[in-house]
Amino acid sequence: MEAVFENGMWVIRLSMIQTVAMAVITYYLGVFIRSKVAILQRLSMPTPVIGGMILAVILSVLQAYRVLTVQFDSTLQTLLMLAFFTTIGLMASIKVVKQGGKLLLWFLIAVSILAVLQNVLGMSLASLMGLDKHYGILTGGVSMMGGLGTSAAFGPYFEQEYGIQGATAVAITSATFGMAGALIVGGPFGEWVIHKYKLQTPKDVPVPEPELHIPEDLKADITEEHSAEKPTFTAELMKATAVVVLCMALGTIVSSFLGHFITLPAYIGSMIVAAVIRNIADASKRFEIQGEGLNAVADISLVLFVTMAVNSLKLYELVNLAVPMAVILLAQCVLTLLFAWLVIFLLFGKSYDTLMLSVGGIGFSMGATANGLAVMQAMAEKYGSNPRAWLIVSLVGAFLIDLVNAVIITWMATL
Questions:
Q1: CA distance from start to end of the chain
Q2: What digits encode the pLDDT tens for the residues 279-314?
Q3: Cβ contacts of residue 195 below 8 Å, gap of 6+?
Q4: How many other C-beta atoms are found inside a 10 Å radius of the C-beta of residue 109?
Q5: How many angstroms from the chain centroid is the CA of residue 290?
Q6: CA dihedral 350, 356, 359, 364 (to 10 degrees)
Q7: pTM, to two decimals
Q8: Which of 93, 198, 241, 386 is the most exposed place for a label (fewest CB within 10 A)?
Q9: Torsion of CA 187, 190, 192, 196, to 10 degrees
Q10: Residue pLDDT, tens place only, 258-278
Protein backbone atom coordinates (compact mmCIF):
# COMPACT_ATOMS: atom_id res chain seq x y z
CA MET A 1 0.00 0.00 0.00
CA GLU A 2 1.25 3.45 -0.92
CA ALA A 3 -0.08 6.71 0.53
CA VAL A 4 0.91 10.08 -0.97
CA PHE A 5 -0.43 13.62 -0.75
CA GLU A 6 -1.29 14.89 -4.23
CA ASN A 7 -3.33 17.85 -5.51
CA GLY A 8 -4.55 18.81 -2.05
CA MET A 9 -5.72 15.36 -0.85
CA TRP A 10 -4.43 11.97 0.20
CA VAL A 11 -4.14 9.25 -2.44
CA ILE A 12 -3.95 5.63 -1.30
CA ARG A 13 -2.89 3.04 -3.86
CA LEU A 14 -3.71 -0.58 -3.06
CA SER A 15 -1.75 -3.45 -4.60
CA MET A 16 -3.58 -6.23 -6.44
CA ILE A 17 -3.44 -8.50 -3.34
CA GLN A 18 -4.74 -5.72 -1.10
CA THR A 19 -7.50 -5.02 -3.63
CA VAL A 20 -8.65 -8.65 -3.45
CA ALA A 21 -8.46 -8.56 0.36
CA MET A 22 -10.68 -5.47 0.39
CA ALA A 23 -13.15 -7.31 -1.86
CA VAL A 24 -13.26 -10.22 0.59
CA ILE A 25 -13.89 -7.86 3.52
CA THR A 26 -16.70 -5.98 1.78
CA TYR A 27 -18.25 -9.24 0.54
CA TYR A 28 -18.55 -10.61 4.07
CA LEU A 29 -19.79 -7.23 5.26
CA GLY A 30 -22.57 -7.71 2.71
CA VAL A 31 -23.20 -11.25 3.96
CA PHE A 32 -23.64 -9.95 7.51
CA ILE A 33 -25.93 -7.05 6.56
CA ARG A 34 -28.05 -9.22 4.28
CA SER A 35 -28.57 -11.73 7.07
CA LYS A 36 -29.91 -8.95 9.34
CA VAL A 37 -32.10 -7.02 6.86
CA ALA A 38 -35.13 -9.03 5.72
CA ILE A 39 -36.05 -6.83 2.75
CA LEU A 40 -32.63 -7.43 1.16
CA GLN A 41 -33.31 -11.16 1.35
CA ARG A 42 -36.80 -10.80 -0.14
CA LEU A 43 -35.41 -8.74 -3.03
CA SER A 44 -32.59 -11.29 -3.55
CA MET A 45 -30.12 -8.40 -3.49
CA PRO A 46 -26.64 -9.71 -4.41
CA THR A 47 -24.20 -9.76 -1.50
CA PRO A 48 -21.34 -8.15 -3.51
CA VAL A 49 -23.59 -5.16 -4.22
CA ILE A 50 -24.57 -4.67 -0.57
CA GLY A 51 -21.07 -4.56 0.88
CA GLY A 52 -19.43 -3.02 -2.17
CA MET A 53 -21.94 -0.17 -2.43
CA ILE A 54 -21.31 0.85 1.20
CA LEU A 55 -17.59 1.17 0.52
CA ALA A 56 -18.22 2.86 -2.84
CA VAL A 57 -20.50 5.47 -1.24
CA ILE A 58 -17.98 6.23 1.53
CA LEU A 59 -15.06 6.54 -0.88
CA SER A 60 -17.10 8.62 -3.34
CA VAL A 61 -18.06 11.11 -0.61
CA LEU A 62 -14.43 11.38 0.51
CA GLN A 63 -13.35 11.86 -3.10
CA ALA A 64 -16.06 14.46 -3.82
CA TYR A 65 -14.95 16.54 -0.81
CA ARG A 66 -11.28 16.06 -1.76
CA VAL A 67 -10.38 14.37 1.51
CA LEU A 68 -9.15 11.04 0.26
CA THR A 69 -9.12 8.87 -2.84
CA VAL A 70 -8.33 5.16 -3.07
CA GLN A 71 -6.94 3.63 -6.24
CA PHE A 72 -7.44 -0.11 -6.73
CA ASP A 73 -5.19 -2.37 -8.80
CA SER A 74 -7.54 -4.04 -11.32
CA THR A 75 -5.10 -6.70 -12.53
CA LEU A 76 -6.76 -9.60 -10.73
CA GLN A 77 -10.21 -8.18 -11.40
CA THR A 78 -9.57 -8.62 -15.12
CA LEU A 79 -8.28 -12.15 -14.55
CA LEU A 80 -11.37 -13.08 -12.52
CA MET A 81 -13.64 -11.58 -15.19
CA LEU A 82 -12.00 -13.77 -17.84
CA ALA A 83 -12.34 -16.82 -15.58
CA PHE A 84 -16.05 -16.24 -14.96
CA PHE A 85 -17.02 -15.77 -18.59
CA THR A 86 -14.90 -18.77 -19.53
CA THR A 87 -17.02 -20.90 -17.18
CA ILE A 88 -20.11 -19.56 -18.99
CA GLY A 89 -18.65 -20.86 -22.25
CA LEU A 90 -17.92 -24.24 -20.65
CA MET A 91 -21.59 -24.57 -19.75
CA ALA A 92 -22.70 -24.10 -23.39
CA SER A 93 -23.41 -27.76 -24.10
CA ILE A 94 -25.38 -28.40 -27.30
CA LYS A 95 -26.64 -31.68 -25.81
CA VAL A 96 -28.24 -29.86 -22.92
CA VAL A 97 -29.61 -27.09 -25.13
CA LYS A 98 -31.38 -29.66 -27.34
CA GLN A 99 -33.52 -30.70 -24.39
CA GLY A 100 -35.33 -27.36 -24.57
CA GLY A 101 -36.58 -28.08 -28.10
CA LYS A 102 -37.87 -25.48 -30.58
CA LEU A 103 -39.44 -23.41 -27.81
CA LEU A 104 -35.98 -22.75 -26.39
CA LEU A 105 -34.76 -21.53 -29.78
CA TRP A 106 -37.73 -19.20 -30.24
CA PHE A 107 -37.37 -17.92 -26.69
CA LEU A 108 -33.68 -17.19 -27.27
CA ILE A 109 -34.52 -15.33 -30.49
CA ALA A 110 -37.23 -13.35 -28.69
CA VAL A 111 -35.04 -12.20 -25.80
CA SER A 112 -32.23 -11.39 -28.26
CA ILE A 113 -34.66 -9.07 -30.05
CA LEU A 114 -35.56 -7.60 -26.65
CA ALA A 115 -31.86 -6.92 -26.00
CA VAL A 116 -31.71 -4.96 -29.26
CA LEU A 117 -34.89 -3.06 -28.36
CA GLN A 118 -33.47 -2.21 -24.91
CA ASN A 119 -30.46 -0.65 -26.59
CA VAL A 120 -32.57 1.20 -29.17
CA LEU A 121 -34.82 2.61 -26.42
CA GLY A 122 -31.88 3.56 -24.22
CA MET A 123 -29.94 5.18 -27.06
CA SER A 124 -33.00 7.12 -28.25
CA LEU A 125 -33.83 8.50 -24.81
CA ALA A 126 -30.18 9.30 -24.10
CA SER A 127 -29.92 11.26 -27.35
CA LEU A 128 -33.18 13.12 -26.60
CA MET A 129 -31.78 14.19 -23.22
CA GLY A 130 -28.48 15.31 -24.73
CA LEU A 131 -26.39 12.38 -23.51
CA ASP A 132 -23.92 10.21 -25.36
CA LYS A 133 -25.78 7.28 -26.94
CA HIS A 134 -23.48 4.84 -25.16
CA TYR A 135 -25.17 5.69 -21.86
CA GLY A 136 -28.32 4.28 -23.44
CA ILE A 137 -26.60 0.97 -24.12
CA LEU A 138 -25.21 0.88 -20.59
CA THR A 139 -28.72 1.35 -19.19
CA GLY A 140 -30.07 -1.03 -21.82
CA GLY A 141 -28.64 -4.36 -22.92
CA VAL A 142 -25.51 -4.10 -20.79
CA SER A 143 -27.26 -3.79 -17.43
CA MET A 144 -30.80 -5.01 -18.11
CA MET A 145 -30.21 -8.12 -20.23
CA GLY A 146 -26.60 -8.48 -19.13
CA GLY A 147 -26.80 -8.04 -15.36
CA LEU A 148 -23.96 -7.41 -12.94
CA GLY A 149 -21.37 -9.61 -14.63
CA THR A 150 -21.79 -8.02 -18.05
CA SER A 151 -22.01 -4.54 -16.48
CA ALA A 152 -18.76 -4.99 -14.61
CA ALA A 153 -17.10 -6.25 -17.79
CA PHE A 154 -18.44 -3.72 -20.30
CA GLY A 155 -18.21 -0.68 -18.00
CA PRO A 156 -14.41 -0.42 -18.20
CA TYR A 157 -14.60 -1.38 -21.89
CA PHE A 158 -16.86 1.60 -22.66
CA GLU A 159 -14.65 3.89 -20.58
CA GLN A 160 -11.49 2.86 -22.43
CA GLU A 161 -12.89 2.35 -25.93
CA TYR A 162 -15.37 5.25 -26.10
CA GLY A 163 -14.25 7.55 -23.26
CA ILE A 164 -17.60 7.31 -21.43
CA GLN A 165 -17.15 8.85 -17.97
CA GLY A 166 -18.63 6.78 -15.15
CA ALA A 167 -19.64 3.93 -17.47
CA THR A 168 -19.01 1.23 -14.88
CA ALA A 169 -20.96 3.08 -12.20
CA VAL A 170 -23.87 3.66 -14.59
CA ALA A 171 -24.00 0.02 -15.66
CA ILE A 172 -23.73 -1.55 -12.21
CA THR A 173 -26.18 0.91 -10.64
CA SER A 174 -28.64 0.23 -13.46
CA ALA A 175 -28.27 -3.54 -13.06
CA THR A 176 -28.96 -3.22 -9.33
CA PHE A 177 -32.10 -1.20 -10.06
CA GLY A 178 -33.19 -3.81 -12.59
CA MET A 179 -32.75 -6.72 -10.19
CA ALA A 180 -34.87 -5.04 -7.53
CA GLY A 181 -37.47 -3.98 -10.09
CA ALA A 182 -37.81 -7.46 -11.60
CA LEU A 183 -38.65 -8.99 -8.24
CA ILE A 184 -41.21 -6.27 -7.53
CA VAL A 185 -43.08 -6.45 -10.87
CA GLY A 186 -42.57 -10.10 -11.90
CA GLY A 187 -45.04 -11.72 -9.49
CA PRO A 188 -47.85 -9.15 -9.92
CA PHE A 189 -47.47 -9.41 -13.70
CA GLY A 190 -47.91 -13.19 -13.52
CA GLU A 191 -50.97 -12.88 -11.29
CA TRP A 192 -52.53 -10.29 -13.63
CA VAL A 193 -52.04 -12.51 -16.68
CA ILE A 194 -53.52 -15.59 -14.95
CA HIS A 195 -56.64 -13.74 -13.90
CA LYS A 196 -57.09 -11.67 -17.08
CA TYR A 197 -56.87 -14.69 -19.38
CA LYS A 198 -58.32 -17.22 -16.91
CA LEU A 199 -55.41 -19.59 -17.52
CA GLN A 200 -55.62 -23.20 -16.51
CA THR A 201 -52.73 -24.07 -14.23
CA PRO A 202 -51.32 -27.48 -13.23
CA LYS A 203 -53.29 -27.28 -9.97
CA ASP A 204 -56.51 -26.68 -11.92
CA VAL A 205 -55.92 -29.74 -14.12
CA PRO A 206 -54.48 -32.59 -12.03
CA VAL A 207 -52.27 -34.38 -14.56
CA PRO A 208 -48.90 -36.07 -14.03
CA GLU A 209 -46.03 -33.58 -14.01
CA PRO A 210 -44.34 -33.56 -17.43
CA GLU A 211 -40.93 -35.15 -17.68
CA LEU A 212 -38.06 -33.79 -19.71
CA HIS A 213 -36.70 -36.03 -22.44
CA ILE A 214 -33.12 -37.04 -21.73
CA PRO A 215 -31.20 -38.41 -24.74
CA GLU A 216 -29.98 -41.99 -24.44
CA ASP A 217 -26.33 -40.99 -24.54
CA LEU A 218 -26.90 -38.60 -21.65
CA LYS A 219 -28.62 -41.37 -19.70
CA ALA A 220 -25.55 -43.53 -20.25
CA ASP A 221 -23.34 -40.71 -19.02
CA ILE A 222 -25.43 -40.33 -15.87
CA THR A 223 -25.46 -44.09 -15.20
CA GLU A 224 -21.71 -44.30 -15.70
CA GLU A 225 -21.15 -41.31 -13.44
CA HIS A 226 -23.06 -42.89 -10.56
CA SER A 227 -21.54 -46.33 -11.04
CA ALA A 228 -17.96 -45.09 -11.07
CA GLU A 229 -16.09 -43.93 -8.06
CA LYS A 230 -16.81 -40.24 -7.59
CA PRO A 231 -13.68 -38.05 -7.57
CA THR A 232 -13.00 -35.82 -4.58
CA PHE A 233 -14.10 -32.19 -4.65
CA THR A 234 -10.44 -31.11 -4.64
CA ALA A 235 -9.79 -33.18 -7.77
CA GLU A 236 -12.88 -31.74 -9.50
CA LEU A 237 -11.91 -28.19 -8.54
CA MET A 238 -8.34 -28.66 -9.80
CA LYS A 239 -9.58 -30.16 -13.07
CA ALA A 240 -12.06 -27.33 -13.62
CA THR A 241 -9.42 -24.70 -12.80
CA ALA A 242 -6.97 -26.29 -15.23
CA VAL A 243 -9.53 -26.34 -18.06
CA VAL A 244 -10.55 -22.73 -17.38
CA VAL A 245 -6.93 -21.53 -17.38
CA LEU A 246 -6.17 -23.36 -20.63
CA CYS A 247 -9.28 -21.89 -22.28
CA MET A 248 -8.28 -18.43 -21.10
CA ALA A 249 -4.78 -18.88 -22.58
CA LEU A 250 -6.09 -20.11 -25.94
CA GLY A 251 -8.75 -17.40 -25.79
CA THR A 252 -6.12 -14.67 -25.84
CA ILE A 253 -4.98 -15.99 -29.22
CA VAL A 254 -8.54 -16.02 -30.57
CA SER A 255 -9.21 -12.52 -29.23
CA SER A 256 -5.99 -11.25 -30.78
CA PHE A 257 -7.00 -12.72 -34.16
CA LEU A 258 -10.55 -11.33 -34.01
CA GLY A 259 -9.12 -7.96 -32.95
CA HIS A 260 -7.82 -7.49 -36.49
CA PHE A 261 -11.43 -7.36 -37.74
CA ILE A 262 -13.61 -6.13 -34.86
CA THR A 263 -13.16 -4.69 -31.37
CA LEU A 264 -14.57 -7.10 -28.80
CA PRO A 265 -14.39 -7.41 -25.00
CA ALA A 266 -11.38 -9.40 -23.82
CA TYR A 267 -13.42 -12.36 -22.62
CA ILE A 268 -15.05 -13.23 -25.98
CA GLY A 269 -12.11 -15.31 -27.17
CA SER A 270 -12.07 -17.37 -23.99
CA MET A 271 -15.84 -17.96 -24.18
CA ILE A 272 -15.57 -19.19 -27.78
CA VAL A 273 -12.72 -21.57 -26.97
CA ALA A 274 -14.53 -22.83 -23.86
CA ALA A 275 -17.76 -23.54 -25.79
CA VAL A 276 -15.85 -25.44 -28.47
CA ILE A 277 -13.94 -27.53 -25.91
CA ARG A 278 -17.13 -28.31 -23.97
CA ASN A 279 -18.88 -29.67 -27.04
CA ILE A 280 -15.82 -31.61 -28.19
CA ALA A 281 -15.79 -33.21 -24.75
CA ASP A 282 -19.49 -34.05 -25.00
CA ALA A 283 -19.10 -35.55 -28.48
CA SER A 284 -15.96 -37.58 -27.78
CA LYS A 285 -16.93 -38.68 -24.24
CA ARG A 286 -13.23 -38.88 -23.45
CA PHE A 287 -13.43 -36.32 -20.66
CA GLU A 288 -16.09 -34.37 -18.76
CA ILE A 289 -16.38 -30.66 -18.07
CA GLN A 290 -19.10 -30.11 -15.52
CA GLY A 291 -19.94 -30.64 -11.87
CA GLU A 292 -19.19 -29.01 -8.56
CA GLY A 293 -15.65 -27.99 -9.48
CA LEU A 294 -16.75 -25.85 -12.42
CA ASN A 295 -19.60 -24.35 -10.38
CA ALA A 296 -17.12 -23.42 -7.63
CA VAL A 297 -14.76 -21.69 -10.07
CA ALA A 298 -17.71 -19.79 -11.57
CA ASP A 299 -19.12 -18.71 -8.21
CA ILE A 300 -15.81 -17.62 -6.67
CA SER A 301 -14.62 -15.72 -9.74
CA LEU A 302 -18.00 -13.96 -10.14
CA VAL A 303 -18.25 -12.96 -6.47
CA LEU A 304 -14.74 -11.50 -6.30
CA PHE A 305 -14.86 -9.93 -9.76
CA VAL A 306 -18.18 -8.13 -9.14
CA THR A 307 -17.26 -7.11 -5.58
CA MET A 308 -14.01 -5.56 -6.80
CA ALA A 309 -15.90 -3.73 -9.57
CA VAL A 310 -18.48 -2.35 -7.12
CA ASN A 311 -15.80 -1.34 -4.60
CA SER A 312 -14.12 0.86 -7.18
CA LEU A 313 -17.26 2.65 -8.39
CA LYS A 314 -16.98 6.42 -8.63
CA LEU A 315 -20.57 7.20 -7.68
CA TYR A 316 -20.01 10.96 -7.60
CA GLU A 317 -19.85 10.76 -11.41
CA LEU A 318 -23.56 9.87 -11.41
CA VAL A 319 -24.75 13.17 -9.92
CA ASN A 320 -25.51 14.76 -13.29
CA LEU A 321 -26.87 11.50 -14.70
CA ALA A 322 -29.35 10.67 -11.93
CA VAL A 323 -32.52 12.04 -13.57
CA PRO A 324 -31.76 10.80 -17.12
CA MET A 325 -30.87 7.36 -15.72
CA ALA A 326 -34.14 7.19 -13.78
CA VAL A 327 -36.14 8.07 -16.90
CA ILE A 328 -34.37 5.49 -19.06
CA LEU A 329 -34.59 2.73 -16.43
CA LEU A 330 -38.32 3.26 -15.85
CA ALA A 331 -38.84 3.13 -19.62
CA GLN A 332 -36.83 -0.11 -19.76
CA CYS A 333 -39.08 -1.62 -17.10
CA VAL A 334 -42.20 -0.75 -19.12
CA LEU A 335 -40.62 -2.13 -22.32
CA THR A 336 -39.75 -5.44 -20.63
CA LEU A 337 -43.26 -5.88 -19.24
CA LEU A 338 -44.90 -5.08 -22.59
CA PHE A 339 -42.56 -7.48 -24.40
CA ALA A 340 -43.26 -10.25 -21.88
CA TRP A 341 -46.99 -9.76 -22.37
CA LEU A 342 -47.36 -9.02 -26.09
CA VAL A 343 -44.59 -11.24 -27.47
CA ILE A 344 -43.64 -14.06 -25.12
CA PHE A 345 -47.13 -14.68 -23.73
CA LEU A 346 -49.51 -13.71 -26.55
CA LEU A 347 -47.38 -14.48 -29.61
CA PHE A 348 -46.02 -17.76 -28.25
CA GLY A 349 -49.54 -18.92 -27.32
CA LYS A 350 -51.57 -18.13 -24.22
CA SER A 351 -50.63 -21.01 -21.91
CA TYR A 352 -49.12 -21.71 -18.51
CA ASP A 353 -45.85 -22.58 -20.30
CA THR A 354 -45.59 -19.15 -21.88
CA LEU A 355 -46.72 -17.43 -18.68
CA MET A 356 -43.81 -18.99 -16.79
CA LEU A 357 -41.43 -18.08 -19.61
CA SER A 358 -42.75 -14.51 -19.39
CA VAL A 359 -42.16 -14.06 -15.67
CA GLY A 360 -38.79 -15.82 -15.89
CA GLY A 361 -37.83 -13.64 -18.84
CA ILE A 362 -38.68 -10.51 -16.89
CA GLY A 363 -36.17 -11.60 -14.26
CA PHE A 364 -33.10 -12.08 -16.43
CA SER A 365 -34.08 -9.32 -18.87
CA MET A 366 -33.81 -6.90 -15.95
CA GLY A 367 -30.58 -8.02 -14.34
CA ALA A 368 -30.40 -11.60 -13.04
CA THR A 369 -31.46 -15.12 -14.02
CA ALA A 370 -31.70 -16.00 -10.34
CA ASN A 371 -34.42 -13.38 -9.91
CA GLY A 372 -36.41 -14.83 -12.78
CA LEU A 373 -36.16 -18.31 -11.27
CA ALA A 374 -37.15 -16.92 -7.86
CA VAL A 375 -40.35 -15.42 -9.31
CA MET A 376 -41.06 -18.68 -11.19
CA GLN A 377 -40.60 -20.65 -7.99
CA ALA A 378 -43.07 -18.42 -6.15
CA MET A 379 -45.60 -18.88 -8.95
CA ALA A 380 -45.00 -22.65 -8.99
CA GLU A 381 -45.68 -22.98 -5.26
CA LYS A 382 -49.10 -21.40 -5.78
CA TYR A 383 -50.17 -22.71 -9.19
CA GLY A 384 -47.96 -25.72 -9.93
CA SER A 385 -44.52 -26.32 -11.41
CA ASN A 386 -43.46 -26.20 -15.06
CA PRO A 387 -40.17 -28.08 -15.60
CA ARG A 388 -39.91 -27.20 -19.29
CA ALA A 389 -40.10 -23.46 -18.70
CA TRP A 390 -37.67 -23.77 -15.77
CA LEU A 391 -35.13 -25.54 -18.01
CA ILE A 392 -35.49 -23.02 -20.85
CA VAL A 393 -35.15 -19.95 -18.62
CA SER A 394 -32.14 -21.51 -16.86
CA LEU A 395 -30.33 -22.36 -20.11
CA VAL A 396 -31.07 -19.10 -21.93
CA GLY A 397 -30.57 -16.83 -18.92
CA ALA A 398 -27.51 -18.57 -17.51
CA PHE A 399 -25.30 -18.57 -20.59
CA LEU A 400 -26.90 -18.49 -24.07
CA ILE A 401 -28.07 -14.88 -23.87
CA ASP A 402 -24.67 -13.80 -22.53
CA LEU A 403 -23.03 -15.05 -25.72
CA VAL A 404 -25.58 -13.34 -27.99
CA ASN A 405 -25.81 -10.16 -25.89
CA ALA A 406 -22.06 -9.57 -25.99
CA VAL A 407 -22.16 -9.51 -29.79
CA ILE A 408 -25.25 -7.24 -29.83
CA ILE A 409 -23.69 -4.75 -27.40
CA THR A 410 -20.38 -4.61 -29.25
CA TRP A 411 -22.11 -4.17 -32.63
CA MET A 412 -24.55 -1.48 -31.48
CA ALA A 413 -21.84 0.46 -29.68
CA THR A 414 -20.22 1.11 -33.07
CA LEU A 415 -23.40 2.47 -34.71
A1: 42
A2: 898 888 777 776 788 888 888 888 888 888 888 887
A3: none
A4: 11
A5: 20
A6: -130
A7: 0.73
A8: 198
A9: -170
A10: 878 766 667 788 888 998 998
